[in-house]
Design goal:
two-stranded antiparallel sheet; 110 residues; mainly beta; two-stranded antiparallel ribbon
Length: 110
C-alpha cells in the first residue's frame, strides 16, 4: 500500500496561519515565515500592538520593534508623559528625561 504524509501548511513571511489559511499581518508589522497566530506579527519601531493592529505611538514618542502596549512608547527628551500617554513639551523651569518632568534646582534655569 501507499503511504502519504501530511505536512503542516507553511505561511510565507509577513503572514500568519489561522484556521488553515495564511492571512496578511496587519499594516506596520512583519513576521517570519511559518508563524501561527496574529501575535507572531511584530509591530515595527514607533508602533505598538492594540486590537489586532499596530497603532502609531503618540507624537514625540518612539518604541522598539515588537512593542505590545502604549506604555512602551517612550517620550523623547524634552517631553514628559501625561496620564493619557501623550508627550507634552517640558515647561520652563524644568527638564524632562525619559518622559519624566523634573524641576530645576533653585537658582538654575532651563
Amino acid at each position: 500500500g501507499e503511504t502519504s504524509t501530511c505536512e503542516q501548511l507553511q505561511c510565507p513571511a509577513n503572514t500568519y496561519l489561522l484556521q488553515g489559511r495564511c492571512l496578511p499581518c496587519p499594516a506596520n508589522s512583519i513576521s517570519e515565515a511559518g508563524k501561527t497566530g496574529i501575535l507572531s506579527c511584530k509591530c515595527l519601531s514607533n508602533f505598538y500592538f492594540v486590537s489586532d493592529r499596530c497603532q502609531a505611538c503618540p507624537s514625540y514618542s518612539n518604541s522598539q520593534f515588537g512593542s505590545m502596549q502604549i506604555s512602551e512608547c517612550n517620550c523623547q527628551n524634552g517631553y514628559y508623559r501625561d496620564n493619557q500617554f501623550n508627550c507634552i513639551i517640558c515647561p520652563s523651569g524644568s527638564y524632562c528625561i525619559s518622559g519624566i518632568m523634573n524641576n530645576c534646582p533653585v537658582n538654575t534655569v532651563s
